[in-house]
Amino acid sequence: MSATLSRHGPLRTADLSEAHEAVSQIFTAHRLERLDRKAPFQARLDAVTFGAVTVGYLNYGADVQLENQEELEAYHINIPLSGNTESWSGRDSVINDARVAAVFRAGLPGGITWSGKCTQMCVKFRRQELEFELERLLGRPVPDPLRLGVSMDLTTPASQDWLSLLSVLRRDHGQRAGITQQPLVARNLEVLLMQGFLLAHAHTYFTGGAEGCSPAIRSRMVKQATDLLEARPETPFTATELASQVGVSVRALQDGFNKHVGMSPMAYLREVRLRRVHDELIASDPGSVTVTQVAQRWGFSHLGRFSLAYRGKFGVTPSQTLRTS
């Protein structure tokens, strides 16, 4: 079976309604609200569809908010090429930039607070075809729908390979004689993009766990979780929330941490927080901050347990570290 490329745009418009209609038709129906009335609204959209895959480049020129209150019918991945956005899928949210893509799950509502300076590459996979490709990779049926982590680390080797596939389409788009204009090539690229995404991004299923994934995929799940904890250690994560962020079950996350890190996710988070407190106390002026202020800034709410953990790790009390800074 072949896939034929269908171009959308390019669209350049200062009309909010026109931009809203175009994006709704190409990607998904949504509500569009302009947040910044001072910056000139100038939407730019250029997209292409081949088979089950749509890839587009979109910028609004002004701060906007997009919201889909109904369940999404496809899987969406938004990759900032400049600037950043805050996105949410269901009850999970992520701030994404050139290093972290936002992933929107089929079957859940979602939305984006989109900076006017941000241009994104928007990728859409039709739900049925992406789940079929997962079955092909695993060699067995999987429960529906596929559950994905809402943030995708774009710095991993697998993610970089996947982005390279997208760059082929980006370079070739608009060329009348480009190789992707050939139906068989477009079909192969369609499958490669879906399978590449499934192999690059952590995922599991509502009734599963990580047992259906390869050791390499499980390792990437742990890497995504540790990166998240290192980037936002002050966030009051629970094991359930962290597992949801990377798209695995709590049991799978705990098993992965015990195997690859040697401790539980929450123990790892405590270690990160203790290091951050220690580093800040060493660099601080004893006359300008207190131990309590620093500890609370890094997520420690129970000061007694914090002091015991700190002394157990560093051999001195937090106050002694601050006094000798």
Automatic annotation (TrEMBL):
<dbReference type="Pfam" id="PF14525">
    <property type="entry name" value="AraC_binding_2"/>
</dbReference>
<dbReference type="Pfam" id="PF12833">
    <property type="entry name" value="HTH_18"/>
</dbReference>
<protein>
    <submittedName>
        <fullName>AraC family transcriptional regulator</fullName>
    </submittedName>
</protein>
<dbReference type="InterPro" id="IPR018060">
    <property type="entry name" value="HTH_AraC"/>
</dbReference>
<dbReference type="InterPro" id="IPR035418">
    <property type="entry name" value="AraC-bd_2"/>
</dbReference>
<keyword id="KW-0805">Transcription regulation</keyword>
<keyword id="KW-0804">Transcription</keyword>
<dbReference type="InterPro" id="IPR009057">
    <property type="entry name" value="Homeodomain-like_sf"/>
</dbReference>
<feature type="domain" description="HTH araC/xylS-type">
    <location>
        <begin position="223"/>
        <end position="324"/>
    </location>
</feature>
<keyword id="KW-0238">DNA-binding</keyword>
<dbReference type="InterPro" id="IPR050204">
    <property type="entry name" value="AraC_XylS_family_regulators"/>
</dbReference>
